[in-house]
Write a structure and sequence with these properties.
Chain lengths: ~240, ~350
Amino acid sequence: MTILRIATRETASYFRSSIGWVAISLYLLLSGFWIAFAALRPGEPATLRAFFGVSQWILLIVAPAISMRLIADEKRTGTFEALITAPISDWQIVVGKYLGALAFFAAMLLPTLAYVGLLETISDPDYGPILSGYLGLLLVGSLYLAVGLFTSAVTENQIVSLLSTVFFFILLELLSTTGGQWLGPPFDEALFSLSIFLRIADLAKGVIDTAHIAAFLAASAWFVVLTVVVVESRRWR
Amino acid sequence: MISLRQVHKRFGRVEAVRGVSLDIQQGQIVGILGPNGAGKTTTVRMIAAAIPPTSGSVEVAGMDAVGRSLEVRRKMGYMPESAPLYREMRVRDLLRYRAGLFGLTGKRRAEAVSRAAAQCQLDAVMHRRCGELSKGFRQRTGLASVLLHDPEVLILDEPTSGLDPAQIAETRSLIKGLAGRRTMLIVSHILPEVEKSCDRIVLFASGLIQADGAPDDLIRQLPGSEQYTIESRGDRPADDLFRALPRVESVESAALADGWQRCTITFSRSTPDQREHIARAAAEANLLVRELHARVTTLEDVYLRLVSSALIPPPPVAAATGAESSRSKIRRGGPEGAGMGGAPR
């Protein structure tokens, strides 16, 4: 119940603050442009694969912008002090905040369902890849937010949180794809498995591999746990 | 109600609190005084179960603040410095949210919000966003948010910081009204606020308790607290005359440019008012007197005397292994009687 209370406040706070609306506007604007000028063209297949492809890049900026304030801003403004002196545990605070950001992220994706409606009016789309594509966006979003939550706990500076999250994923992608190609067998398989974009590409094609789902969920959970450890570290530092 | 035993708190290489022992009874209003970095906020954060001590024990209502931190926090209302609030939330929503965090739901929550809002006179601003509030109302909202669960212990960190004089007076009267059976700790470096609101003062400096007692007791025990200044002119040196008075500890004399002589007479501690005796002695010696006044010692004198003496460089962390060793160092560098007061332990 406490987690839900914290999550609800967190989600509502995005809608009450400019950062939430900026994030939604930025995402819808950029993805909308992409749909209008790159995806919906005569002769193109009736899929949203291009939208899912570009979304993972846009979300690489937008999701860390959502998560950057989660703990850093509370520490900066001092509200975190009031939170940790309430009779709630650190993991309830962290999980509540994470779920709140995730709920806002999911709400941000909702308007893009209009693209599905648009596709339906002009063609006969296959809903399998669309559903798995959205699942992919939710999974990649949950991972971006989890890493962003972690960096937000490490620093009091929101910009540092945002930049370090973005750099982390760019570095991870470079290391996994370019590194995998450069090193070749037998290392390439292991390195490719670290690539988020390769996994998302599979989901956008309609390939629902439980390994992908498990990888995203496990990595997200791992960073949430790490965040709890960082928040708890004030007790033994 | 609150008991600290040999509490140390280290942040990396910095030892913020160096062996503090303190007992606070239920219903006491205790002012925690000290300069910035004295260890007062760290101490109350440990009492509020926000951080654990590096060593030593902190107990609130008989419960260990580390082992049973959630239960301790349920009994505690802690308002951090500058009463931080979620700027985007409306006052009513914020109070409802905070009440929920303390486990209040439904009717109990509604009642708690109404009661706290009435106590802090927030009814007129309940619909306003916290970011739009004046500093005074922000402070009141912060106060209301820690009163929702009717805590047994209330800790207010710099409750009047940044307020104008009218707001300070309002907040002070509000705080006084909250006392009653509650135990209250008011952290501040604004001396008049503490002197007027608290019945006991604990003075911190360099991570140690330098003095502990009722404000009047602390003032009385300050060395040289019975001090008188007299400006006179006559045929014989006034300082010799005053030195002959009973219980005089010292007389400092200075010749003024206009031919008058100023004497500062210090009597031994707890001597009753000596103005009459001084005036009589001056009259009998045919001294012409143009000024005689007693120097009233204030809490500020106590504060400055003890804090300045304690702000000698603290010993290295490795050397400060126990409270006794730390205290003795402070005493050596401090005035006679530093560490006075004899905490009601």
